[in-house]
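Bumping with the actual sequence this time:
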Amino acid sequence: MNIYQIAVEDVQGKAVVLEKYKGKVLLIVNTATQCVFTPQYESLQKIYQDYKDRGFEILDFPCNQFLNQAPGTEEEIKKFCSQKYFTTFDRFAKTFVNGPDENLLYTYLKKSKKGLFSSKIKWNFTKFLVDREGKVVKRFSPSVKPTKIAKYIEKLL
């Protein structure tokens, strides 16, 4: 299996096969609207604006698994992000990133790049960088600001 064979659910509940993003550099992030890292939406939008015309996409997966920090519906999350942080990158349905109900995408990502001490996602705003061929090349902890990832994105573009 490769990343392009995985289907995820968009905010309307429709299946999206990741083949749609084939040939692009991807930053996949599990997010939350009420987290200490929520302000990272601003710098995520900045790097998206800087690189989207060169084949870069951000895939945003809201996750309510950590202290219920992503409450609300997908529509409420979308509205919050677009009004407060003016985000325009692709957002998907709320998802589980750990445990028996975890999204297949996150099973794949964690298997490809383990964290410092385990493969488990420890918190919101864990980021995975995927190259144009679909290979997961780097995993970033929640504390790594998106602007610090820009140099890695540059190399892949």
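The tokens above came from a reply further down the thread. The chain has one domain: 3-156.
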